[in-house]
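One such shown below:
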Amino acid sequence: MRIVHFEKGGEHGIAANDGSGWHGLTKRKSGFPGTLPELIANGADLLRAGRDLLLLPTIDLDKVRILPPVPKPPKILCVGLNYDDHLEESGLKKPVYPEIFARFATSLIAHRDPIRLPRESDTLDYEAELAVVIGRGGRRINRDRALDHVAGYSLFNDATIRDFQLRTPQWTMGKNFDGTGAFGPWLVTPDALPPGAHGLRIQGRLNGQVMQDSSIDKLIFSVPALIEMISVAISLEPGDVIITGTPGGVGAARKPPVFMKPGDVFEVEIEGMGVLSNTVQHESPDEASR
């Protein structure tokens, strides 16, 4: 089941698709079950909610604005250096513990929104990634039960301002410029995928050219392992998002480097989950002066 969070005419809406098309409604319509972020926060049974939505009128996603599945997550926990091929191109040793860093909600954008190149840099890089949305919170979660805490999966482009990332040992600045974290287009419920999305193909394409091509089973730390290891220290909450890392092929590791420019289109595709697509544009003068 795919469930999408959208906006139409100033109203939030929700729709579901089990392969038969999108069905749903907006907030002021009778029977509205809540937005997708609200359902996740309240621990709702998303599969049941999705089945109920399938009984409603059709929704044309080309006529609405798609929003991130969770626009303001309590936490966005990202994992660096989690694929062997990305480690190799980075010239680093295999980690024995995941490299965790934070993103903030102010960096998030939706499917079809523009990724924004700030005036301070021209080193805007792409990173195709699997996103895991937590549906049931907890601390010290056992790996064997970790997937019981997952509400669903989505796609992410962890776009990075590389020169800012490499200025310090901590990556916070380079990973958090406004308008650089593309998230969506929808949430895919766990029943529709292999456990932990294991074995699914992941690609990143720049202007149609395949730049990254790998498989989720090549994660050094799997989805259950990440949930277990992160929750040792940090209580996970409904709506938290774990961004699981990017495979090899990033622009900064190429010779010569390849960075995204205004007018470019970057797509993230994960097998069975869909495509997240975003253009690139210069940050507007209004945004740059805020």
